Amino acid sequence: MLEISMELIDEEGANELLQAQARVWNHALAFINSMALKCAVQLDIPDAIQNHGKPITLSELVSSLPIHPSKSQHLYRLMRILVHSGIFSLKKEGYSLTPTSRLLLKGNPMSARPLLLFWLDPVPMEPLRCLSTWFRNEDPTAFDTAHGKCIWELAGENARLNNLLNEAMASDGALACGVVMKKCKGVFEGLKSLVDVGGGTGAMAKCIAETFPTMNCTVFDLPHVVSGLPGSKNLKFVGGDMFESVPSADAILLKV
């Protein structure tokens, strides 16, 4: 059993010891921030605040959410974490949205909500519980260690995961393309064709195709991802395996 003699610890050493303990606690309990944020999204707290039209008090927020009456007293603690994290702001009048929580609104065309719900789903999170095992084996990724196959294979077999993943990638693509078209539009000038490799349901390519109507854009992804997706005059979907071949074009886009 470890014993520490307090006589051997001076004031500076005591402060250092407490700071070290605080770092361990912060790392060990950091998941609370993630889970609190996921809870807020699943309870539609950002939308409840938005729909209220002005800063909302705690009692008004409780009344607007689908929570059990016995849990209403605990909402304060959840909101306290999220205010401390900068997700919401709190003033005398009540809780308000911040630029961060506005990204979690259902109606926001660039909402990060689907991406957050994918990241914090048990399937993508399980590999993190297997990291030490993965370091000891020959599996290519921790996802393989956790699930016995890569994420693309599992998504092809699991409709729920496939939808979750596609919605997450579309969400990220919409946000990324909006920024890229604002800041880096010149990169695409002069291109006659482009293929978005691993383009999912085409959010990024659709944005590019609409911005450059004379450019022929192709979304290339696994067959189960692009099957049945409608194209347009200058946008088409092609199924295949990027590790075997990729359609030819003036430029290849790899978003991540």
Automatic annotation (TrEMBL):
InterPro entries: COMT-like, COMT_C, COMT_dimerisation, SAM-dependent_MTases_sf, WH-like_DNA-bd_sf, WH_DNA-bd_sf. Keywords: Methyltransferase, S-adenosyl-L-methionine, Transferase. Pfam families: Dimerisation (PF08100), Methyltransf_2 (PF00891). The keyword Transmembrane does not apply. PROSITE patterns: SAM_OMT_II. The keyword Hydrolase does not apply. SUPFAM superfamilies: S-adenosyl-L-methionine-dependent methyltransferases, Winged helix' DNA-binding domain. Residues 131-255 form the O-methyltransferase C-terminal domain. One of its GO terms (biological process) is isoflavonoid biosynthetic process. Residues 25-106 form the O-methyltransferase dimerisation domain. GO terms for molecular function: O-methyltransferase activity; protein dimerization activity; S-adenosylmethionine-dependent methyltransferase activity. This is O-methyltransferase domain-containing protein. It comes from Salix viminalis. The lineage of its organism: Eukaryota, Viridiplantae, Streptophyta, Embryophyta, Tracheophyta.
